[in-house]
Each structure stands twice: as structure tokens, then as C-alpha cells.
Design brief:
By secondary structure, the protein is an alpha/beta fold. It has helices at 10-22, 33-42, 59-68, 84-92, 105-119, 152-163, 171-178, 190-202; strands at residues 2-6, 26-30, 47-51, 75-79, 97-100, 127-129, 132-135, 140-143, 146-148, 208-210, 214-216. It folds into 2 domains: 2-120, 3-Layer(aba) Sandwich (Rossmann fold), CATH 3.40.50; 127-216, Winged helix-like DNA-binding domain superfamily/Winged helix DNA-binding domain (Arc Repressor Mutant, subunit A, Orthogonal Bundle). It is built from 8 helices and 11 strands. Helix 6 packs across helix 8. The longest helix is centred in the middle third of the chain and has 15 residues, at 105-119. Bound molecules: calcium ion.
Length: 219
């Protein structure tokens, strides 16, 4: 799950990033409304955490721009302005839900799951492939019906590979999925380490290597 966080308060943003990465989300952080809009126009996100009071273009404008383009990406508003008119304006502009600061991190993740579940509609958002079942909403994985415990990074690698069985993803493509923009340099063998762990937990045949090119799950 790739999340865009648009928030100008550094402390709040860093707290959210740390907590959400531990939950297995990939987070891209933008500090103002214009770069938030630019990111939303350029990339696909599964969910947006959007502050309303932002430098440049404010959160409502970011949201209106998104919906004007018929982009239905779920948006959860984070706002210190807890007056009713702001909440109503946010929901009217197409937000899926809102959270009033100061908030509890558990509340944020619970609301995110709920919004994602709703966005997925009645359909089961889980990916099932050759005995592996991955649920992006609950962040759980099963192999032949038995739960498998994965780290957040292992989960992100497996999710990327399972989204397109048979397609080869290079190490650089997998690193992109693991780390948001502007994050620190990835250790050069990190992807290999996660692939090794995934094979150990899911079976050595679960992920194949195409030497010199990348990794794939057999179609
Ligand atoms: Ca703010």
C-alpha cells in the first residue's frame, strides 16, 4: 500500500511516517499543497492523508483538484481545525473521512483500514496466487491457509511481485516500492535479504530469480 502524506508539521509527519512504515505502508511525504498536487498528478497512491492548513495551496484545494480529475483515491483529512464548517467542507469536497488533531496513531491506522476497505467495495481485496493469500487491508499473508508472519519490508516486496505474477521486477523497481521519495539510501543488498527471507517462509519455489534481471513469482 502506497500512501501520500501531505502535512507541513514536521513532528506530526515524522511520527506518522515511522508508525505507518512499521505497519508495512510505503509513505511519500509532501510538505505543501502544491507538491502534494504535483505528486497526485504524477503517481498512483492507494490512500492520501491530507492536512487542511498547508502552505501554498491548502488541503481543500488539493482535494478539489484530485476530484475534478475524477480520481477516486481515498482521502483521509488530518486537521487541527475541528470546527464543523471545515469538516463539512472537506467531506463536501470529496474526502472519505477526517481525523481531528491531536490524534492517536492507532486511530489513524484503524480509520485508514476502514477507508481502504470501503474503497475496495464488496470485493475481496486479497491477492490469491498458487497457495499464497495476501490481504493488503489487514496486512496478513497465508500459505496454504496457515498464517505467515512477514516484516513490513518483506510484505511490500511480496505484494509488489504478486500484483503481476510472471512479470519480472528489477532490484531498483522493488527498492522504489520499499522506500518513498527522499528517503535515505537503501542498503545495496536489502532486496536480496528480503527475497531470501520470503523464500524461507513461503517455500523456495515461491519467488524465482531471472539472473541479472530481477525477480518474479511464477504465473
Ligand atoms: Ca498544517
Amino acid at each position: 500500500m502506497r500512501v501520500l502524506l501531505v502535512e507541513d508539521d514536521q513532528m506530526i509527519a515524522q511520527g506518522l511516517q515511522t508508525a505507518l512504515r512499521q505497519e508495512g505502508y510505503t509513505i511519500d511525504w509532501m510538505r505543501d499543497g502544491n507538491s502534494g498536487t504535483a505528486a497526485l498528478r504524477a503517481e498512483h497512491f492507494d490512500l492520501v492523508l491530507l492536512d487542511l492548513g498547508l502552505p501554498g495551496r491548502d488541503g481543500l484545494e488539493v482535494l478539489r483538484d484530485l476530484r475534478r480529475r475524477n480520481d477516486a483515491t481515498p482521502v483521509l483529512i488530518l486537521t487541527a481545525r475541528d470546527e464543523l464548517p471545515d469538516r463539512v467542507a472537506g467531506l463536501d469536497a470529496g474526502a472519505d473521512d477526517y481525523i481531528v488533531k491531536p490524534f492517536d496513531l492507532d486511530e489513524v491506522t484503524a480509520r485508514m483500514r476502514s477507508v481502504l476497505r470501503r474503497a475496495a467495495g464488496r470485493g475481496d481485496p486479497a491477492i490469491q496466487h498458487r497457495g499464497i493469500r495476501l490481504d493488503p487491508v489487514t496486512h496478513s499473508v497465508e500459505r496454504d491457509g496457515a498464517p505467515v508472519l512477514l516484516s513490513a519490508h518483506e510484505f511490500a516486496v511480496l505484494e509488489a511481485l504478486l500484483q503481476r505474477p510472471g512479470a519480472v521486477l528489477s532490484r531498483a523497481q522493488l527498492e522504489d516500492r520499499l522506500y518513498g521519495w527522499g528517503e535515505q539510501q537503501v542498503e545495496s543488498n536489502a532486496v536480496e535479504v528480503y527475497i531470501h527471507a520470503l523464500r524461507r517462509k513461503l517455500g523456495s519455489d515461491a519467488i524465482r530469480t531471472l539472473r541479472g534481471v530481477g525477480y518474479f513469482v511464477p504465473a
